[in-house]
Design goal:
Radius of gyration: 27 Å
Largest sheet: 6 strands, mixed
Number of strands: 13
Distance between the termini: 48 Å
Strand content: 5-15%
Number of helices: 18
């Protein structure tokens, strides 16, 4: 491989050699980011489920004392109240969170909790980005093939709910020919699939509880199947639904680790759980959220705005940070590969074209999943969510900036370069003094547009648990079920920030490109 690179270097022109050196520098930069992020590991997701008889995990025997003083990353769901949700202060609370923290304190270890969403939490665990998951995860035979589970900490049960205004659906028989919503990977999905053929309805699997409740309220589905504590809590928080069926028996929920790994963490969890039950603290945690959930009081829109503002501003800060870092790297990539595409070296033009086609020809969301979940599995090196997000946005925006640079340079009349060369100026001097200054004026509006696009694209990183503005909005409406109003606030913040930054960019454009 090294020999091939050296041969390419010898074949390149003088300008091509300099450009090839720049490419190798950029590659080194990204390899450095990946290596630096290896020390940062995200965490598995919280689980929600009732008490059950003990299930022995198939892991090697380990001592709970092995975890003392250690810190473990644990992933959890984003929206599964009362098991995991964010309170008015933006803190992650709930049955799973309180249990996990109490067990950690009891056993002398620390936890770094990552709120990723159920699907993302499992992917993070399988790619070794986290050491465990607690997120309303049912203990099933299929999952036991992949994960080792703790003793059950909650016994599940399923109920059906419909919109408050719906008086037509009261039993399973009323669902014939209709669609019901379930949470993907949940006990509710398993139960709904087990009876759908008998009662003749179709099942729609969605990402989280808040989304499926909204689907029912919007009339896209007539009913929802969910864990009984989750439904009861949601109804008490004015989620717009009503429960119409008695509880069906479900399976048990447990804390999960990868099969054959982190046996000491699993042993400590079981021991801590037993200690909490013996001391009565376990029951206190359940009663805090289940015995008599406090009914939410309806607040005005402006009260919602005031309560949500701190969390949304925190998310906005992360959005601007990711955007700024990504644009700096993308600009470097755009300039380097843009000059490759207009250079004389055919090899470097091919390299730049391949880069552009790959990152313009694949969805940004797929790229984010690859860098956060796929790459760690291939390399064995974990990558923190900020690094994965910045790399994704940088490479994606860099491909578009490459074409902006290429188009800007090629838009300058070729006669300009020819005239300067005829006056005795060299190629580099002609480009620097004549062509590039004119190209910058042409490129500036496109750069401003790409800046706006990249800022908005940060919202897609919410799917990998990056706590930007959209993610914070999801956390808020998952707890208060006021989806429409919360998304309106989030959209308004995006609009205001983008409008201000666009106007500022236009002022700078007019000032420096007169």
């Amino acid at each position: 491989m090294v020999t091939k690179i050296l041969n390419l270097y010898r074949l390149a022109t003088k300008r091509g050699r300099a450009a090839l050196g720049a490419v190798l520098t950029v590659l080194a930069l990204f390899l450095g980011i990946a290596a630096a992020s290896a020390a940062v590991m995200p965490a598995p997701a919280p689980a929600s489920a009732p008490l059950a008889s003990a299930v022995a995990p198939a892991v090697a025997h380990a001592s709970a004392a092995d975890v003392k003083g250690k810190t473990f990353s644990v992933a959890t769901d984003t929206t599964f109240a009362p098991f995991e949700f964010r309170n008015g202060s933006g803190d992650l609370v709930g049955i799973d969170m309180d249990l996990l923290r109490a067990i950690a304190a009891n056993q002398g270890f620390k936890v770094d909790i990552k709120s990723l969403g159920f699907d993302a939490a499992l992917q993070a665990l399988q790619s070794n980005q986290v050491q465990g998951v607690i997120a309303g995860m049912s203990i099933t035979d299929k999952r036991k093939l992949i994960f080792d589970f703790s003793d059950p900490y909650f016994d599940s049960g399923i109920q059906m709910a419909v919109a408050k205004s719906n008086n037509d659906v009261k039993t399973y028989s009323d669902l014939k020919g209709k669609s019901v919503a379930v949470k993907r990977g949940s006990e509710g999905e398993t139960f709904a699939n087990s009876i759908k053929a008998k009662y003749g309805f179709t099942v729609k699997a969605l990402a989280d509880s808040a989304t499926m409740y909204d689907d029912v309220k919007a009339g896209n589905s007539v009913a929802v199947f969910d864990d009984y504590p989750v439904l009861a809590y949601g109804v008490s928080q004015n989620n717009g639904l009503k429960i119409v069926t008695p509880k069906e028996r479900g399976s048990s929920y447990g804390f999960a680790v990868n099969k054959g790994q982190n046996a000491d963490l699993l042993t400590a969890f079981d021991k801590g759980l037993a200690n909490l039950k013996a001391s009565g603290e376990y029951q206190k945690i359940l009663d805090k959220y289940l015995a008599a959930p406090e009914t939410a009081k309806q607040t005005s829109f402006f009260q919602l705005l005031a309560n949500s503002f701190p969390a949304l501003m925190k998310g906005l800060g992360m959005t601007l940070l990711a955007t700024a870092l990504s644009l700096v790297i993308a600009l470097v990539l755009g300039i380097v590969f843009g000059f490759f595409k207009v250079g004389e070296s055919r090899i470097l033009r091919i390299i730049a074209s391949i880069y552009v086609e790959i990152f313009r020809g694949t969805p940004l969301l797929v790229q984010a999943f690859f860098f956060y979940f796929g790459l760690p599995q291939l390399t064995g090196q974990p990558l923190n969510v900020l690094s994965a997000g910045v790399i994704t946005l940088s490479l994606n925006a860099g491909a578009y900036m490459t074409e902006i640079v290429r188009g800007g340079i090629q838009s300058v009349d070729p006669g300009q370069l020819e005239a300067s060369r005829s006056l005795g100026l060299g190629y580099v001097t002609s480009m620097r003094r004549v062509v590039v200054p004119q190209a910058i004026k042409i490129m500036t509006p496109s750069f401003i547009n790409q800046f706006v696009i990249t800022l908005k694209d940060t919202s897609l990183l919410a799917v990998i648990g990056f706590a930007e503005l959209t993610y914070q909005g999801q956390q808020i409406y998952a707890a208060n079920f006021r989806t429409g109003e919360t998304l309106l606030i989030v959209a308004a913040i995006y609009f205001i920030v983008i409008f201000i930054l666009t106007q500022l960019s236009n002022v700078l454009d007019r000032k420096f490109n007169k």
